Here is the input.
Amino acid sequence: MKKNVLIIGAGAVAKVVAHKCVQYGSEFGRIVIASRNAEKCRRIIGSLAWQGRLKEPAAIQAHALDAMDVEATRALIRDTGSQIVINVGSAFINMSVLRACMDTGAAYIDTAIHEDPGKVCERPPWYGNYEWKQSDECRARGVTAILGCGFDPGVVNAYAALARKRDFDRVESIDIFDVNAGSHGRYFATNFDPEINFREFTGQVWSWQNREWTANRMFEIARTEELPAVGRQRLYLTGHDELHSLSRHLDVPNIRFWMSFSEHYINVFGVLKNLGLLSERPVVTREGQTVVPLKVVKAVLPDPATLAPDYRGKTCIGTLVKGTKNGRARELFIYNVTDHRQAYAETGSQGISYTAGVPAAAAALLIARGDWDVRRMANVEELPAAPFLTLLDRMGLPSRIRECGRDVPWDKPVNNCGDAGGRVPETIAYSG
Here is the structure.
């Protein structure tokens, strides 16, 4: 059984991961938080102490680490005796941290696909460009590497896999909906690192349609859905990490990702993009200084971690699955609703960070217990969904199913609609 956890990163998601790992400290043993800024790590530890969550303060440590430095990361893993590494730092460090884990035998967990700082929106499948190339070595070394274990990607992958195996004979389509109906009170901000967030939306939007990759422009295709807790929402077809592994592992012809954006967000985003301020390419100012526009925008926008105290409202993230069961058409929506204020009261982070961090901590716990210590590289949909979702229920992310007008816990599917009729969510409009 693996113990001793190293958390890499010190942002809002890392804060959630630390809170959840401390709650299960008796199973994890020693906990270490490391980032380039050790003071940020110490502040997370301070928040745990202030909330009275640390039963043994000495059991958690802070370290300075440049995770791009593979040798330094290897040394920290060995020096701290860490057997599980949770990477919730920038997506730019995935491959260096994975390399260090493979060299030391530590289990690896991340929440997003690796990104090359010099490339935006590469051709899919993105996992095939980086992580999957290390799969054979992981298996040969017996190293567990769980890829994309946040909420999306992560939990929504488990939703899709569960439905595919349990609730359908054949699945025709999977549509993932990500809605943040909360408000942080700022003129404009992003919920994660702006540099990573904007890179998702500045290139082509890739989706899996009729068993092939299809490209569209951002905000080109939209639909309106009536969703639990957040009501009627406008969602836009968006490229996203989970499409790349689900299209490979689930044998489903159509897999799409949809995200909600306010008109204000779209307008500001459009202005920034049209002015060239979202470019990752260096430019030279009239004063002769070389700057990267996207990094300048990142510098002037609010730190995502500072949004939490003022956040109000809820998120709704789920997977709509359509197909057939026993020769009859069937569709169901598996989802979670998270309240920003409740997330902040528990962890000091807002709901988006909460939904990303709790699944990573749950994955670490499943590795520690042996359930997910598979000694190979795997995306979430390749792993048993039931223990994961059961643990998430207990850790603050309960899942439910809507089908035929009924709403039940995820482990109590409707199975027989009878005369209930109706569908949830309800598609109001679709345009392109």
The mean pLDDT is 92. The first helix runs from residue 12 to 23. Residues 155-345+398-431 form a domain with the Dihydrodipicolinate Reductase; domain 2 fold (CATH 3.30.360.10). DSSP finds 15 helices and 20 strands in the chain.
